[in-house]
Amino acid sequence: MNKIIPSKKIMSKLGKTNADFGLIEEGDKILVGLSGGKDSLTMIHAMKEQQRRAPFDFEFVAVTVGYGMGENFDALSKHCKSYDIPHIIHDTKVYELSKEKIRKNSSFCSFFSRMRRGYLYSIAKEQGCNKVALGHHMDDAAESFFMNFIYNGQMRSLAPIYTAQNGLVVIRPLIQMRERQLLAFVEENKIQAIGDEACPAMRFDVKMPHARATMKVMLAKMEKDFPQLFVSLNAAFKNISVESFFDKEKFSI
C-alpha cells in the first residue's frame, strides 16, 4: 500500500487555517464527516498527517452516514482500514423517510443535508467527540456567500468554526483551500472518490437545484476576468467593515 501524504500546499494551508482560527487543539476528539467524496477524503488524510506533525495530541474518527439506498461502502471501509483511519458506517432510513417528507419541487438537498448533520451530531455525542469536522472548501464558501447575497439578501457565508446549539464545536479545516486542490489530491494519489452518482437527488423526479450550479458558472467567469478573485474573497471574509453597512440600529438615537 503506497503511503499517502498530502502536498506541502495542502498541509501548509491546513496549518495556517488551524493557527488562525484554533480549530484543532490538545485533547480534542473529532468526528470527521466522510461521504467518500474528494473533499472528505482529502480531509481524513490531511488530518492523519496533521496528527503526525502537530506538537499536540488529538483523535479523530471518520463517520459515513448511509441513507438507506443500498449504498455499498466496502471500498471506503477498506481504504480507511488500509491507512489506519478509524471508520464508522451508520445506516439510516432517510431515503424512505424523504419520500413522505419531500414534496415535488421542494428542497430535497437541504432535507438530506439537515438529516445527515443531525445523525453526525448524535454519533459525535455517542463517541465522546467534542468537535465535528466538515469538508467545505473556499469554493463552497464563495458560492454560499453569493447565493445568500443574490437570493436571500444576506451577507453570509460558511464560518471556519462555530458552536452548535447542542454544544458541539463545528470546524471546517479545508475552508481556505480551493476545490481544485482537493480534486488534484485524489487524482494524483489514485484514490477512488464517490461522485455525484451517489447523490440521493438522482433518484427523485424533481428539478435539480440550480442556484449553486449557477453560482459555480458565475464565479468561474468572474475568476477568468479577475484571476485574484478567490484570494480577495478569502481576505474580504476576514476583513468585514461592519460599520459601513445599512444597520438602522447604528443610526438610532
Report on the structure:
By secondary structure, this protein is an alpha/beta fold. It is 47% helix and 11% strand. Strands 3-2-1-4-6-5 form a 6-stranded mixed sheet, with helices on both faces. The mean pLDDT is 90.
Describe, in short, the structure shown:
With 253 residues, the chain is of the alpha/beta class. 47% of the residues lie in helices and 11% in strands.
Task: Describe how the helices and strands are arranged.
Blueprint: H1 8-21, E1 29-33, H2 38-53, E2 59-66, H3 74-82, E3 87-91, H4 94-101, H5 108-126, E4 131-133, H6 138-152, E5 161-163, E6 169-171, H7 179-188, H8 211-225, H9 229-236, H10 248-251
What is the end-to-end distance? Answer: 68 Å
Radius of gyration computed on alpha carbons: 19 Å
Portion of residues in helices?
Answer: 40-55%
Structural class: alpha/beta
Mean pLDDT: 90
Report the major sheet: 6 strands, mixed
Count of individual helical segments: 10
What is the H/E order? HEHEHEHHEHEEHHHH
- Unreliable parts: none
The 3D shape can be described as: globular
**How big a fraction of the residues is strand?**
5-15%
Strand line-up across the major sheet: 3-2-1-4-6-5
How many β-strand stretches? 6
How would you describe this structure in keywords?
10 helices; 6-stranded mixed sheet; alpha/beta; 253 residues
